[in-house]
Amino acid sequence: MKTDIQRGLVLRNEKCHEHYTTEFLYNLYSSEGKGIFDCRINVLGHLQQGGAPTPFDRNYGTKLGVKAVLWMSEKLREVYRKGRVFANSGDSACVIGLRKKVVAFSPVTELKKVTDFEHRLPQEQWWLNLRLMLKMLANYQISLTEYISGKMEHVTRRTLSIEKGF
């Protein structure tokens, strides 16, 4: 930790040794890292529930707010005619957010088609094809051969090739 490394990550599975709790690991790293590094606890379930916003959250929220106001101003200019606003098109009600690493506005009418309202989730999750790997990491009884073999090709190849991207 005294070298160029700026960050570290410790992952703990809920099925690990009973004495190696999250609090124990936090206390261990906190006491050993005094003056060299600091640490904090992030439990995935707690992160999903929200809590106190970080500076990144505040900065990102401000940027999204500015983009939303600029978008609304542009839309109002487009639909304002003779003292009235005609906002009856499909893209007049949108949600701002990330779509494939790009901040985008998604019309509510499109989101309605791809949303599971009962469970409050998208109907298609990007991470579903990672479930077998997640099960392996969670110590399920699963065979590596059940995983998609084509995706493992770069791991088993003996030579690296710049032309092929490896």
What does this structure look like?
The protein is α+β, with helices and mostly antiparallel strands and 166 residues long. The protein has 2 domains: 9-50, no CATH class; 53-136, 3-Layer(aba) Sandwich (Rossmann fold), CATH 3.40.50. Helix content is 35%, strand content 12%. The protein contains 6 helices and 6 strands. The protein has a two-stranded antiparallel sheet with strand order 1-2. Strand 5 (115-116) and strand 6 (121-122) form a beta hairpin. The protein is elongated. The protein starts with 21 loop residues before the first helix and ends in a 10-residue tail after the last helix. This is PFKAL protein. GO terms for molecular function: 6-phosphofructokinase activity; AMP binding; ATP binding; fructose-6-phosphate binding; identical protein binding; metal ion binding; monosaccharide binding.
List the helices and strands and how they pair.
Blueprint: H1 22-32, H2 44-48, H3 55-79, E1 80-81, E2 84-85, E3 94-99, E4 102-107, H4 108-113, E5 115-116, E6 121-122, H5 131-137, H6 153-156
The CATH architecture designation of the largest domain is 3-Layer(aba) Sandwich
Q: How much helix, percentage-wise, in residues?
A: 25-40%
The CATH class designation of the largest domain is Alpha Beta
In total, how many domains does the architecture comprise? 2
Count of individual beta strands: 6
Largest sheet: 2 strands, antiparallel
Q: What's the tally of helices?
A: 6
Strand order of the largest sheet: 1-2
CATH-defined fold name of the largest domain = Rossmann fold
Give the helices and strands as they follow along the chain: HHHEEEEHEEHH
- Overall radius of gyration: 24 Å
Structural class comes to: alpha+beta
Q: Gap between N and C termini, in Å?
A: 29 Å
- Overall form: elongated
Query: What fraction of the residues are assigned to beta strands by DSSP?
Result: 5-15%
Tell me, rounded to a whole number, the average pLDDT: 77
InterPro entries: Phosphofructokinase_CS, Phosphofructokinase_dom, PKF_sf
GO biological process, one term: canonical glycolysis
Protein name: PFKAL protein
Keywords: Kinase, Magnesium, Metal-binding, Transferase
